[in-house]
Amino acid sequence: MGDGTKNGSGCFKHKRSISAMKSNIRISKFQFSGIGLGIVTVIIGITWIYFAIKNRKLMKLRQKFFHQNGGLLLKKQLSSEKGGMESAKVFSAQVLEKATNNYSEDRIIGRGGYGTVYKGILSDERVVAIKKSIKLDESQIEIFINEMVILTQVNHRNVVKLMGCCLETEVPLLVYEYISNGTLFHYIHNSEEMTWFSWENRLRIASEAAGALAYLHSSAGMPIIHRDVKSPNILLDESYTAKIADFGASRLIPIDRTRATTLVQGTFGYLDPEYFRTSQLTEKSDVYSFGVVLAELVTGRKPVSTEKSEEEINLANYFVACVKENRLFQIIEPKIMREGSLEQIGAMGEVVKRCLESKGEERPTMKEVTMELERLRKYNIQSHKKEEQILDGNMGATSEQQPDLYPVPVYPDFTFRQYNLESDLFHAINTPR
Question: Using CA of residue 202, residue 203, residue 206, residue 211, what is the dihedral sign?
Answer without folding.
Answer: negative
